[in-house]
């Protein structure tokens, strides 16, 4: 029986040194035949929809240099481009960590409940003024995305930014083991993915796994000393770099957010206007400027990078429709990003009328009713002429804000919007990704 088992294992079972050679001779790594490029090394991963072992022939047809599969049924013994691993995903992660170990450049890890991608993009803009900067592409921040990101870092790169996301406890610790960041920061700790992480305590534990890695390994940490949760960690590090103010080293001062954030620098009069909406973006800006200063980017160039940065992909984008100004924040939503968005919108001025459009927040599990109801309480603190709720879960907010107009589905809401012929409105649209609230814009 044992003999038979060994006979079944392909002769080309993978080891790391063979794999690294294959990687070095490839044009990069791919896990997706829909996006594969010629000469890529293909890793067949299993997901909720597909088992990519079955795509190995397609990957090769499309020009893959080799394929790593983990289901023996798909192994082709006499094709030298096939390699067998016990677990393709683990192999991908091991390869990424092996590659990372060859690198001697700063690797900056960042996580947090909100603002990771925005902060990463701002840091990239700033650091690119001085360094060849590698960074996570878009939102590739999980157990597959982080390895893929690491494998895009080349010998020419001088610094790298790695966004790390989490769905459950232990995720960030695992990503730290793979990426081994030399520097790191947490944007904030809020109420996101409450369901998977075991409530607010779980979120705190998960996100601070990055701090734990940095502390245990004597790495450099950047801490937002104005954040009520993160500031508690300052004393646990020997030499933390603080923002938005670290004495004379770097002081970033918030001016206003109506709707765009304006900031100034310590000891200087000039006020800089950004394209970023909402007071919550100030922390993201301060992080990027502090990192820039730390790594020796000239202050004028760093400020220029921030001032020119344009947010994209529905992350607090400003759109104009006739006489209306729309803040489209339909990329995602969770209790903490909703709260800061409502508060910042509540204080905005500039149009005759104001309308708040909120949709469901997902992934809250048992916290769904209370967290949606809390939104109503927050809205009540401000004078907002029209408030509209759309979705199912958000119905819980009617208990705390009964004045709101309620549309159980976006279809009925669209018709209402179209008939309303809104003019001279400032409008905020925010909801979870699954709500696809961006579809409403066409009807305003
Ligand atoms: P994901 O978990 O999807 O990777 P992320 O942490 O990368 O999200 P971003 O994509 O940068 O976050 O921003 C998503 C939304 O979060 C923004 O549109 C904005 O509404 C909100 N947001 C951004 N920065 C902050 C912040 N510092 N605090 C609270 N909310 C924020
Ligand atoms: N995949 C692929 N080609 C396809 C469809 C999927 O290579 O035509 C890969 C995909 O990139 C992932 C794996 O198969 O690595 C598992 O796919 P998943 O179940 O996650 O589905 P997806 O959400 O990617 O469609
Ligand atoms: Mg992100």
UniProtKB/TrEMBL annotation:
A molecular function (GO) held by this record is:
UDP-N-acetylmuramoylalanyl-D-glutamyl-2,6-diaminopimelate-D-alanyl-D-alanine ligase activity
Q: Which residues form the Mur ligase C-terminal domain?
A: 315-433
- What biological process terms from GO does the record include? cell division; cell wall organization; peptidoglycan biosynthetic process; regulation of cell shape
Which domain of life does the protein's organism represent? Bacteria
InterPro entries membership: Mur-like_cat_sf (IPR036565), Mur_ligase_C (IPR004101), Mur_ligase_C_dom_sf (IPR036615), Mur_ligase_cen (IPR013221), Mur_ligase_N (IPR000713), MurCDEF_CellWall_CoF430Synth (IPR051046), MurE/MurF_N (IPR035911), UDP-N-AcMur_synth (IPR005863)
Task: Please name the Gene3D superfamilies in this protein's record.
Answer: Mur ligase, C-terminal domain (3.90.190.20), Mur-like, catalytic domain (3.40.1190.10), MurE/MurF, N-terminal domain (3.40.1390.10)
Q: Could you say which residues bind ATP here?
A: 112-118
The reaction(s) annotated as catalysed by this protein in its Swiss-Prot or TrEMBL entry are: D-alanyl-D-alanine + UDP-N-acetyl-alpha-D-muramoyl-L-alanyl-gamma-D-glutamyl-meso-2,6-diaminopimelate + ATP = UDP-N-acetyl-alpha-D-muramoyl-L-alanyl-gamma-D-glutamyl-meso-2,6-diaminopimeloyl-D-alanyl-D-alanine + ADP + phosphate + H(+)
Localization per record: Cytoplasm
Gene Ontology terms: cellular component:
cytoplasm
* Pfam families listed in its UniProt record: Mur_ligase, Mur_ligase_C, Mur_ligase_M
* Occurrences of domain Mur ligase central (ranges): 111-290
**Quick one: which pathway?**
Cell wall biogenesis; peptidoglycan biosynthesis
What are the record keywords, sorted?
ATP-binding, Cell cycle, Cell division, Cell shape, Cell wall biogenesis/degradation, Cytoplasm, Ligase, Nucleotide-binding, Peptidoglycan synthesis
Taking the first listed entry, what is the main subcellular location of this protein, grouped into a coarse class?
cytoplasm
Q: Which intervals hold domain Mur ligase N-terminal catalytic?
A: 27-99
EC no. given is: 6.3.2.10
Give the family from UniProt: Belongs to the MurCDEF family. MurF subfamily.
Question: Its function?
Answer: Involved in cell wall formation. Catalyzes the final step in the synthesis of UDP-N-acetylmuramoyl-pentapeptide, the precursor of murein.
**Record's protein name:** UDP-N-acetylmuramoyl-tripeptide--D-alanyl-D-alanine ligase
């Amino acid at each position: 029986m044992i003999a038979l088992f060994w006979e079944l294992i392909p002769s080309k079972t993978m080891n790391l040194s063979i794999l690294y050679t294959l990687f070095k001779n490839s044009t990069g790594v791919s896990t997706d035949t829909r996006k594969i490029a010629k000469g890529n090394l293909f890793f067949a991963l299993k997901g909720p929809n597909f088992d990519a072992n079955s795509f190995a022939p397609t990957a090769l047809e499309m020009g893959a240099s080799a394929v790593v599969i983990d289901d023996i049924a798909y192994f082709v013994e006499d094709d030298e481009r096939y390699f067998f691993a016990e677990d393709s995903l683990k192999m991908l992660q091991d390869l990424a960590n092996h590659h990372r170990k060859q690198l001697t450049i700063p690797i900056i890890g960042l996580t947090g409940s909100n603002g990771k991608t925005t902060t990463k993009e701002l840091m990239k803009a700033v650091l690119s003024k001085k360094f060849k900067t590698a960074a996570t592409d878009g939102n590739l921040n999980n157990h597959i995305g982080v390895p893929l990101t690491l494998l895009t870092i080349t010998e020419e790169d001088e610094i790298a930014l790695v966004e790390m996301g989490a769905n459950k406890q232990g995720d960030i610790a695992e990503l730290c083991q793979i990426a081994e960041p030399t520097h790191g920061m947490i944007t904030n700790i809020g109420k996101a993915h409450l369901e998977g992480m075991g409530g607010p305590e779980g979120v705190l534990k998960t996100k601070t796994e990055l701090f734990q890695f940095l502390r245990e390994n004597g790495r450099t940490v950047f801490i937002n000393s104005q954040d009520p949760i993160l500031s508690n960690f300052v004393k646990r590090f020997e030499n933390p770099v603080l923002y938005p103010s670290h004495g004379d080293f770097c002081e970033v001062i918030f001016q206003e957010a109506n709707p765009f954030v304006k900031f100034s620098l310590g000891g200087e009069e000039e006020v800089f206007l950004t394209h970023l909406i909402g007071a919550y973006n100030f922390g993201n800006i301060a992080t990027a400027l502090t990192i820039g200063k730390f790594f020796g980017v000239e202050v004028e160039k760093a400020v220029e990078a921030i001032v020119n940065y344009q947010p994209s992909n529905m992350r607090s984008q400003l759109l104009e429709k006739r006489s209306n100004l729309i803040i489209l924040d339909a990329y995602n939503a969770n209790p903490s990003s909703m709260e800061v968005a409502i508060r910042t919108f509540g204080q905005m001025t500039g149009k005759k009328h104001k309308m708040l459009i909120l949709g469901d927040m997902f992934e809250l599990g048992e916290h769904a009713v209370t967290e949606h109801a809390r939104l109503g309480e927050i809205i009540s603190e401000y004078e907002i002429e029209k408030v509209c709720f759309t979705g199912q879960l958000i119905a819980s907010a009617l208990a705390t804000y009964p004045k709101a107009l309620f549309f159980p589905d976006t279809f009925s809401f669209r018709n209402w919007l179209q008939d309303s012929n809104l003019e001279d409105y400032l409008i905020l649209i925010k909801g979870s990704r699954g709500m696809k609230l961006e579809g409403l814009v066409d009807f305003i």
